[in-house]
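[step 3/7] inverse_fold.run input=structure_tokens len=325
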């Protein structure tokens, strides 16, 4: 690990100003950043610790919107009674996201910003990776692809976004509120991450000096759940994951929200499937057709075609399980 300078920000404005420098990185929970620094993936010259910044650790309900401060730990969010009652899918995604020890440190604002776990991105040698070394290419394109993308990939990058809470937040139509030296903004959760055809070198759309301050989730999704398929039941990143939120009227689906995790560089909304599910009974055979339609544009790579079948079956299972809650 290379030497670096450490300082603590006393306000959001101070943190934004300091982190606008290209060699400066914000430190919150540190569960991701310190690991990347240890591996040599990140080498910032200056860390700005924002854990002491006030006003970013509250969870409040106002006008039927849950406001979650970005510095809340994952465990605090998952245990909050309003979150548990309104958004079971978020609670479940958090509880499956990491070990309890990590969830006591990792923050709800930082977790969705984590980098891909592509083995070529985290490789310590000079492996081609546009995320690590812009313009160097994508070693994964013709390499190990078993856990790579099935949606939205290009020859410049075939990696996936690994955050479980991010997938749940996309299904819940959450918004990220930010502050920045030139003014903050509201970012729909489904627009936070960047696909390779937008910029193969970047993970998300945040600008230098822009910091997530609050996550806002409207309404309620009491009939919701998170299905995570992984190689082992203990702490592990997903092979595929499904965040599902349904509304039923007399046993008929009146609204559906579905987001897939670990299938693209952003949580992937199944918009077509959502539309086709409306008006169907969860047990009907037409639900399978609706799910199939959502995978019409899925593209496998040599070595990961199984992910299409796995994600399709997981989606169908999630819809029916959530509908029966």
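[step 3/7] decode complete -> sequence:
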């Amino acid at each position: 690990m290379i030497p670096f300078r450490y300082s603590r920000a006393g306000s959001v404005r101070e943190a934004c100003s300091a982190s606008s420098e290209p060699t400066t990185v914000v430190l919150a929970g540190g569960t991701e950043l310190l690991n990347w620094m240890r591996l040599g993936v990140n080498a910032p010259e200056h860390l700005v610790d924002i854990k002491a910044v006030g006003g970013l650790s509250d969870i409040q309900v106002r006008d039927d919107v849950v406001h979650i401060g970005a510095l809340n730990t994952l465990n605090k969010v998952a245990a909050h009674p309003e979150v548990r009652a309104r958004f079971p899918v978020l609670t479940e995604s958090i509880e499956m996201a990491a070990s309890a020890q990590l969830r006591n440190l990792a923050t709800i604002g930082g977790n969705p910003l984590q980098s891909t776990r592509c083995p070529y991105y985290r490789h310590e040698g000079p492996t081609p990776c546009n995320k690590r070394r812009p313009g160097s290419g994508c070693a994964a394109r013709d390499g190990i692809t078993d856990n790579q993308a099935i949606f939205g990939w290009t020859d410049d990058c075939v990696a996936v976004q690994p955050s479980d809470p991010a997938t749940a937040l996309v299904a819940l139509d959450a918004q990220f509120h930010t502050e920045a030296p030139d003014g903050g903004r509201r970012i729909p959760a489904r627009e936070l991450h960047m696909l390779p055809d937008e910029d193969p070198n970047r993970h998300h759309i945040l600008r230098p000096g822009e910091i997530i301050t609050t996550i806002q989730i409207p309404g309620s999704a009491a009939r919701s759940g998170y299905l995570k398929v992984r190689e082992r039941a203990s702490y592990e990143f997903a092979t595929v994951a499904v965040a599902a939120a349904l509304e039923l009227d007399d046993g008929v689906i009146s609204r559906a929200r579905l987001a897939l995790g670990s299938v693209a560089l952003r949580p992937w909304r199944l918009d077509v499937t959502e539309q086709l599910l409306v008006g169907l009974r969860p047990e009907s055979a037409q639900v399978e057709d609706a799910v199939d339609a959502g995978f019409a544009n899925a593209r496998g790579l040599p070595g990961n075609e199984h992910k299409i079948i796995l994600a399709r079956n997981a989606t169908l299972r999630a819809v029916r399980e959530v509908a029966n809650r």
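[step 4/7] annotate
The two ends are 48 Å apart (CA to CA).
The first strand starts at residue 5 and ends at 8.
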